[in-house]
Amino acid sequence: MAGKVPMRFVNFRTLLELTVGAKRGGIGGTSRFFWTRARWTAGALGSGRAAFLVGLPVLSGLSYQAFRKVQGSAVVCALDKEEVLEQADYLYSCAETEKLYQLLLQYQGSEDAEFLWRLARASRDLSILPGTDAGRKKQLTFEAFEYAKRALERDDKCFAAHKWYAICLSDTGEFQGIKVKIGNSYIIREHLERSVELNPKDATSLHILGYWCFAFAELPWYQRKVAAVIFSNPPTSTFEEALEFFLKAEEVDPNFYSKNLLMLGKTYMAMKDKEKALFWLTKAKEYPAHTLEDKEVHKEALELLNQL
């Protein structure tokens, strides 16, 4: 389960708060990457322009797939580490955010990275739930980052620790200035790349890297100028680089996430390849709508197809 986010929302909610003025739409429902949870999913990803803050996605469709795999299982009383982790992953797949958080909170003093990165993820998911007040949201955001940081300190060979460190670091940028957000973007990418290096089959990390590249490739000239005022060498990327990550994510786990299909279509549109854009946008439109995010992807894909 470490490989699936779930961008719950990975619905990865967000990784890189790198966009200036990007809309922040929550991803409701039971999406994980609920990415309700992936801030950048419905917001930054869904907006016309990505800004300096790339809210990394929280991937909703992933939790549904995970649920299908464990459907019929029963939550058992945890007696040892493996049972606790199994129960935690079951609760995550079912989007039982509060129950998951309370379960893992009992192990907040653990020195085990497997507990800590899951607790970071649960704290983050809880922070982006609708109805969470501003004070609680900030507390949970920084709490999640500290858990992810500890997980990484305990095991820097754990790909999930690197992934959630990157996601949670991005989230803290919401409460800090633009300079910090842009500066963090370098670190975020570094940890995402390390996550992929440790687990090349993790489609969600590849997807987030693709979005990171897309966001900076799409950055308008005037926003680049603002970034250049703060940093002599601000983050840059290309649509070609973004495409490489999106395609790789699809290669390792075909149709794993409706948003990845949409981003492939949008990337080909940006590259003026109408034929391939039509292909991927059609796939995104026809993707089974199991979550609210899937429905939003369907709507955007349809709008883009009409434009084409």
TrEMBL record:
Keyword Hydrolase attached: no
Pfam families: RMD1-3
Location, primary (coarse class): cytoplasm
GO MF, any single term: microtubule binding
Stored InterPro entries: RMD1-3_a_helical_rpt, TPR-like_helical_dom_sf
UniProt entry tagged with the keyword Nuclease: no
Keywords: Cytoplasm, Cytoskeleton, Repeat, TPR repeat
SUPFAM superfamilies from the UniProt entry: TPR-like (SSF48452)
GO cellular component labels: mitochondrion; mitotic spindle pole; spindle microtubule
Subcellular compartments: Cytoplasm, Cytoskeleton
Ranges in a coiled coil: none
Subunit structure: Interacts with microtubules.
Family: Belongs to the RMDN family.
Official protein name in the record: Regulator of microtubule dynamics protein 1
The species this protein was found in: Crenichthys baileyi
